[in-house]
Amino acid sequence: MYDIGSPGVTWGDKEKKQWFNKQVIKRSYHDEVLLKVLPLASLFDVEQYGALTIDKARYPLYAIKSKNWQADKKTVLVTGGVHGYETSGVQGAIRFAQTQAQDYQTLFNVIILPCISPWGYETINRWNPKAIDPNRSFYANSPAEESAAALNLMQSLDTEIYLHIDLHETTDTDNSEFRPALAARDATVHDNWNIPDGFYLVGDSTKTQADFQKAVITGVEAVTHIAPADDSGKLIGVDIEQHGVINYAARELGLCMGLTDAKFVTTTEVYPDSPNADDENCILAQVAAITSAIAYAKNN
Prior knowledge:
With 300 residues, the protein is of the alpha/beta class. It has helices at 13-22, 29-37, 87-99, 118-123, 145-156, 173-186, 210-221, 250-253, 279-298; strands at 45-51, 60-65, 75-80, 109-113, 161-169, 200-204, 234-235, 238-239, 245-248, 264-270. It has one domain (13-298): Aminopeptidase (3-Layer(aba) Sandwich), CATH 3.40.630.10. The strands form two sheets. The protein has an eight-stranded mixed beta sheet with strand order 1-2-4-3-5-10-6-9. Strands 7-8 form a two-stranded antiparallel ribbon. Its cofactor is Zn(2+).
């Protein structure tokens, strides 16, 4: 049983405040993210698009954009850190900006939101300070300011988002902390506790783009192992569409993957707790997913 709330009773403001008061700063957004992002201003337009009200000075939100932005050019969007605790999503987005993004600017506009949830990054959390999951909150009048800020930015761009790749992780803390907290908050029962060992993708079930997903899996497979289906032919309780790929209804669930009307869209899932992976391998897998996705979109 989770240590906040009562079984069978959804959380109110009191319980959410108790949860918030348990959270502690465990790492530095400034040192691990901003000190890498801000120097990229020599290569890109690094623009602040908001700040978290819990501490606007500590948690500014930045986008990394092509300097030669052209509204009539197709745009590649990379998002990371929607769930702040998913480290390789943030660091993979930054590594792509540092090493690869410039190579694609003649073909596409490139925009990278490397850390959508900086408070979650510092406290190593799935939720935001109000115990809201930003990755279930990408819709109009969102209660999650992290999601709302990204939505507002996208609406201001006046360009076609052709490709969107959203970088995530699935970790052992999903079972030790986040699923128990979710069950307690919502007074629900969670039956599936399988964590796939390896990389996989989540596509949008309304536009699955099977060949695109396959191309990304093939590119990542050169860097790290792909998660096998479980004994029932599923990943995280969902039927596989093909090797390493499942599908969710992006807009219906309020996922970041549904942030735009991009033709090509996918969410990555890296497993950093695998005995066959390490931090660097996970970052490289995220970069491989991005570059493989762009390579496919370039030819289609």
